[in-house]
Amino acid sequence: MSRRLVVVRHAKAEQGGPTDFERALTPRGRADAADAGAWLARQGFTPDRALVSAATRARETWASLTEGGGWDLAPDVDRGLYAAEPDTVVDLITRVDDAVQALVVIGHNPTMASLAQLLGDGEGDPELENELLSGFPTSATAVFSYDGSWADLAEGVARLVGYHVGRG
Questions:
Q1: How many Cα atoms are found within 13 Å in the side-chain-facing hemisphere of 159?
Q2: Nearest of 60, 4, 51 to residue 32 by alpha carbon
Q3: Nearest alpha carbon to residue 115 among 9, 30, 12, 2
Q4: SS in 3 state form for the chain?
Q5: Angle (deg, nearest 10), helices 126-134 and 111-119
Q6: 10 and 109 in contact (C-beta within 8 Å)?
Q7: What is the tens place of the pLDDT at every residue in 115-155?
Q8: Which pTM was predicted?
Q9: pLDDT, tens digit, 9 for 90 and up, residues 68-126
Q10: Which of 10, 19, 57, 83 is such that its CA lies 20 to 30 A from the CA of 26?
């Protein structure tokens, strides 16, 4: 059974805020995230579940992503995603119920870029692989196809099938 996993770096945020955790998206960030959501919708993607960092910019990215995608799904907000290492994010994903076919994870760099590189089996479209390896800027969205239980997700087991950088 093929599953879809979408790894997203939060959109462009303000440089300052009361704390780093509370930095909000810029107007460009909101537009970029909406563009990424619209792109996902055009690919036929509809999420069943979303794991989103509790940081303001990640939650706002999800809100704009859903607006662009036309989805109505409340996210699972996780404070641990704010400072998580890639292995920790994989651990969170492996706890997802197998009834979920399409999962979005929104977090921060360098973790999201590392996660996307870690998950890929290297057998995806070479052009997409090169784009992913060339950088993971704000609003970067990597789509993976994965055949297996979420509990078995590990390094190098997912195929990169889409890559987009939202620029609204």
A1: 11
A2: 60
A3: 9
A4: CEEEEEEEECCCECCCCCCHHHCCECHHHHHHHHHHHHHHHHCCCCCCEEEEECCHHHHHHHHHHHHHHCCCCCCEEEHHHHCCCHHHHHHHHCCCCCCCCEEEEEECCCHHHHHHHHHECCCCCHHHHHHHHHCCCCCEEEEEEEECCHHHCCCCCEEEEEEEECCC
A5: 160
A6: no
A7: 999 999 999 899 999 999 999 999 999 999 999 999 999 99
A8: 0.97
A9: 999 999 999 999 999 999 999 999 999 999 999 999 999 999 999 999 999 999 998 99
A10: 83
User: In the beta sheet, which residues pair with residue 162?
Assistant: 143
Copy the structure tokens of residue 46.
């509809």
Residue whose entry in the numeric block shows the structure tokens 């809100």: 63
Residue 95: the pLDDT is 97
